[in-house]
């Protein structure tokens, strides 16, 4: 690296972007890497505090920040991820190619940042994202980083750190249980809530049926939906521990794999998840009907990608599983469901 007085720098080529900050007005690039310094540039460079210009002689040992950003782009860019065309001040941005769930290799992300002189930041793992959304950004800290450091990074990251798993199209059957609804003593208001939640995804609702508190009828209606091609079943009502609430036992008796009856999430502690082969069956507690966001929102987004959740996946929500019931809901841009 060579240090040249700015007043003597006419004709030299800038080896890095130079930023200008006007408090409350502007922050951005004043001079771009590759700019040939002209006589009229000298006063502005001096006003930006640049009494000297540094010319980097990279040779075999150094990597310029923009070239390092390209390497980091390759390390982060997995399935359904793209990077912005422009690399600004050595930073590369990652965006989602489609709607879906962001998957972050958190362990290797930590190891990469632990190398030092590398900054790689992302949205949280399992975050629902939209097409074009900014999901990560990376850069090296110095203007020139050791080539050895970047080789270490490449040897550490064998598969890309980021990917977006797209949502699939599901055919959904809704089974609402409870004598009070079946016999018309009260109006069902659960079904519309579920339909509104499902409308956030591209899926087909085959229908909704009302069932009395009778396990055989509940199981029979569920089987009818399966025979019609449903590949997701959602049960509402009858999810408490009262003896009259038969929905959980009905789901369990249908066979398959019971993942969990209960979750460390509030609202949503009485949530049930089971799989009949690859078909997810969810029993929803009453809170889903009146709370803005619950365990159902956290799990549904992941289930919609075809991910088969384990008991551990559900129990991991304990860290971050408390909804603060804000007056104005900002989910998913809040702490709810974000695992620390």
From TrEMBL:
<comment type="function">
    <text>Catalyzes the insertion of molybdate into adenylated molybdopterin with the concomitant release of AMP.</text>
</comment>
<keyword id="KW-0479">Metal-binding</keyword>
<protein>
    <recommendedName>
        <fullName>Molybdopterin molybdenumtransferase</fullName>
        <ecNumber>2.10.1.1</ecNumber>
    </recommendedName>
</protein>
<keyword id="KW-0460">Magnesium</keyword>
<keyword id="KW-0500">Molybdenum</keyword>
<keyword id="KW-0501">Molybdenum cofactor biosynthesis</keyword>
<dbReference type="InterPro" id="IPR036425">
    <property type="entry name" value="MoaB/Mog-like_dom_sf"/>
</dbReference>
<dbReference type="InterPro" id="IPR038987">
    <property type="entry name" value="MoeA-like"/>
</dbReference>
<comment type="similarity">
    <text>Belongs to the MoeA family.</text>
</comment>
<dbReference type="Pfam" id="PF00994">
    <property type="entry name" value="MoCF_biosynth"/>
</dbReference>
<keyword id="KW-0808">Transferase</keyword>
<dbReference type="InterPro" id="IPR001453">
    <property type="entry name" value="MoaB/Mog_dom"/>
</dbReference>
<comment type="pathway">
    <text>Cofactor biosynthesis; molybdopterin biosynthesis.</text>
</comment>
<feature type="domain" description="MoaB/Mog">
    <location>
        <begin position="173"/>
        <end position="305"/>
    </location>
</feature>
